[in-house]
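We close this part of the discussion by returning to an individual protein. The sequence in question and its structure tokens are set out directly beneath this paragraph:
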Amino acid sequence: MAIFYFLRHGETAWNAEGRLCGRTDVPLSDVGRHQAQLLALRVKALPTEALYSSPLSRALETARLVGQALGCEPVVDGRLSELNYGAWEGRTFDEIKRTEPAVYRAWDEDPGELAPPEGETGVHLIERATPFLADVAQRHQSGNVVVVCHKTVCRLLACHIMGVPLAEYRRRIPMENAALNIFETVEGKWRVVSLNDTSHLSKPAVGISQ
């Protein structure tokens, strides 16, 4: 059995303002760096086989802080990049609803099949992210693996593993900054162990042991 710890990066200034980051390379804020340090303390006790990260700086900085605690260097994989929000990046949902109400309503109803203007659908993200799952499951058939990525990546992968329709990911799967999610493989089958655990942000961090 292999256990995979999927971590969402710490907060950015755009996250705090409710702005869509997507592929825009927004760095961690001071708050986000502190969250990443708490996340690192949370997983520090794990004997870790490997550490993977999205190439976007908010994820990679989080991964480097986590890696310092684990004694691992992050391996960058572009398949872990966040959903491309296209023309909506840098905007808030309130702004989008006000200026493009019909387009927003259609996308909000099924973000699995529909993309923001010039952006990417949930299906497209899953089509690039699930080969990463297959690769790491093959490469790491036992032990602990840490993966640092993004809100929508974690939500859609959780839906994919649990069989939840991708259209429902925004309504069914919450995912806060610096959240810890645990997936595992047993006899080649993926399953979800926990989602959106942020307990390390509100109380002294307790290491995980497996």
Q: What stands out?
A: The mean pLDDT is 95. The domain at 2-201 is CATH 3.40.50.1240 (Rossmann fold).
